[in-house]
Design a protein that fits this description.
The complex is a heterodimer of chains A (285) and B (231). Chain A is α+β, with helices and mostly antiparallel strands and 285 residues long. Chain A has two domains: 172 residues, no CATH class; 97 residues, 2-Layer Sandwich (Alpha-Beta Plaits), CATH 3.30.70. Helices cover 73% and strands 8% of the residues of chain A. Chain B has 231 residues and is an alpha/beta fold. In chain B, 30% of the residues lie in helices and 25% in strands. Chain B is built from seven helices and ten strands. In chain B, helix 3 packs across helix 4 and helix 3 packs parallel to helix 5. The chains are: A alpha+beta (285), B alpha/beta (231). Chains A and B meet through helix 8 and helix 9 of A and helix 2 and helix 3 of B. The complex binds adenosine-5'-diphosphate and magnesium ion.
């Protein structure tokens, strides 16, 4: 077997406790990052679900000719922000009302004249579902002569905006904090592994081993620890997710790509943590 | 082979450890480096194997200009040297043969050649029978023989020995010294730092003496003295 690989693996046998400690600390720091990620993923999902319902309704003046409306609908659909624009005629508004407002069916049934206006209902593309764009589109709609009124949940869109900003800021700060903590912990455990082997490193240098040769087993070892830590963290996160799902709320888990990214992140942390530790050690001797 | 020309060495904290030291050691020579504790013997050796930077002057070691050696070339220099110390510096969790093999493995020797080369040097130092023993199972003299085997296994042109008998009793000292003489007889130059003057008197070798960092005596250029006279 290649000496680098053998040396890297030997560490796990020579210092099983220290290795287990490193893997566990990496696993727990990544687990915390992961839990936070899960909350973020679910919050994102929830926000997206809520944003789904961001809708702008343009009520039309009675008697607007259908040709004008059809043309306008085309125009509106061509707005870059708009995902769909659907014309709801006076009649279908009434039909819908009858279907949705069951309690008032009788009243609605007996009406002589349809009091409901026709409208165009707009849905925006996902990335435009915020207060600024909603307002812009609403203003543009008011510019059409036959538009009587434009409605959207203004307060609600603004709240959604604020919620998004808070979620992003908190996610960034807490996520970064835990990532930094994870890097420090991993750097420290690798540093202990380096110190534990400082005699060996000194002898390697004495007999003429190159720095690269000395460094390699530690890098591999760090990467393996990071990888194992990432996998354990992912397992723990999945356990937590299963529990939450069963007892608390329906939640989402990471996508396959996100899971791979987190494990890869663990591996990178292990790699860079050990590179930093070994590098510092070699520079001093 | 080893050539010091007007070498000065100052440590960051501490005075001058070497003051204007010049000497030339030829291929295959055996040279004692003597002097009281703190005279600068270890410092001379550290400059030879580039453990410490040269403050000024020129140090040449088997074709390497050590004073100007870049860090990445240091391993190449060390592969030409064998180095042993007073405290053996063996790895406790490896057997004698593993300690020796280590020097080959980490310098990229062909794996298939390692066992034979290891056995050959262990035989040379008289420890073939204890190849599987761990350092704690060996006497001081035997541990030093393992260290010497490790130093020899890369076939160095020079063996540097810093007080190699400093931790040994008289009997083991004689054995290890004889081994160094044998190694020298087979063509390897030996530069041995020691303050054991009994040992120095035992053999007709060249003596370089340091005093407070200055070279005060070199038996090749100076008149022979009683102290270092050959028997
Ligand atoms: N790393 C160091 N830093 C400062 N001073 C040192 C260092 N190493 C050695 N010295 C000083 O250099 C002088 C020579 O030391 P050394 O070469 O070890 O002597 P010797 O081996 O002859 O006993 C001593 O005065 C010692 O204190
Ligand atoms: Mg000394």
């Amino acid at each position: 077997m290649n000496l680098t690989i053998r040396e890297a693996l030997l560490t796990f046998r020579r210092a099983p406790l220290l290795s287990a400690l490193s893997v566990t600390t990496i696993a727990f720091s990544l687990f915390v990052v992961g839990l936070f990620g899960l909350v973020a993923v679910n919050l994102q999902d929830a926000l997206r679900g809520v944003a789904e319902r961001v809708e702008i309704v343009a009520y039309l003046l009675p008697g607007t000719p259908i040709e004008t409306i059809t043309l306008a609908e085309k125009d509106i659909e061509a707005f870059p922000e708009v995902q769909s624009a659907v014309y709801v005629s006076e009649d279908s508004a009434l039909t819908r009302a009858r279907g949705e407002l069951v309690e008032f069916r009788d009243v609605l049934q007996e009406l002589e004249r349809n009091p409901l206006p026709a409208s165009i209902e707009l849905k925006l593309r996902p990335r435009f579902r915020d207060a600024q764009h909603v307002n812009e589109v609403a203003d543009r709609l008011r510019g059409f002569g036959f538009v009587d009124d434009v409605r959207f949940g203004r307060d609600w869109v603004e709240k959604l905006d604020r919620l998004r900003q808070v979620a992003a800021a908190v996610g960034l700060v807490v996520g970064a904090a835990f990532a930094v903590v994870a890097i420090i912990i991993i750097g420290t455990t690798i540093r202990m592994a380096v110190l534990q082997r400082s005699r060996e490193i000194a002898i390697m240098r004495l007999v003429g081993a190159t720095d690269g040769f000395i460094r390699r087993p530690f890098l591999l070892q760090g990467a393996i620890k990071g990888l194992l830590g990432g996998l354990v963290a992912m397992g723990l996160a999945y356990g937590a997710y299963t529990l939450i799902n069963r007892w608390l709320i329906q939640a989402a888990f990471f996508s396959k790509e996100q899971a791979v990214a987190i494990v890869g992140f663990g591996t990178l942390i292990g790699l860079f943590g050990s590179a930093a530790s070994v590098g510092r050690h070699l520079r001093r001797v | 082979m080893i050539k010091f020309t007007n070498v000065f060495k100052a440590f960051p904290k501490g005075g001058l450890a070497l003051k204007d030291v010049s000497f030339h050691i030829a291929k295959g020579e055996f040279v004692f480096l003597t002097g009281h504790s703190g005279a600068g013997k270890s410092t001379v050796l550290k400059l030879v194997f580039a453990e410490e930077p040269v403050t000024s002057g020129e140090v040449r070691v088997s074709g390497f200009n050590v004073a100007e050696l870049r860090r990445k070339d240091v391993p190449m220099l060390r592969r030409r040297l064998g180095i042993v110390f007073q405290d053996f510096r063996l790895l406790e969790d490896r057997s004698a043969e593993e300690n020796v093999a280590f020097a080959l493995e980490v310098t990229g020797a062909r794996r298939s050649t390692i066992p034979a080369r290891v056995m050959r040097v262990l035989t040379q130092v008289g420890l073939a029978a204890k190849a599987q023993a761990y350092p704690r199972e060996l006497s001081g003299g035997e541990q030093q023989r393992v260290a010497i085997a490790r130093a020899l296994v890369n076939e160095p042109t020079v063996l540097l020995a810093d007080e190699p008998t400093g931790n040994l009793d008289e009997r083991a000292t004689r054995g290890v010294f004889q081994l160094l003489r044998d190694i020298n007889a087979s063509g390897t130059a030996v530069l041995m730092a020691t303050h054991d003057l009994d040992l120095v008197r035992q053999a007709p070798y060249r003596v370089i003496e340091l005093q407070e960092g200055a070279l005060v005596y070199d038996s090749v250029v100076d008149e022979p003295r009683d102290q270092a006279a050959s028997p």
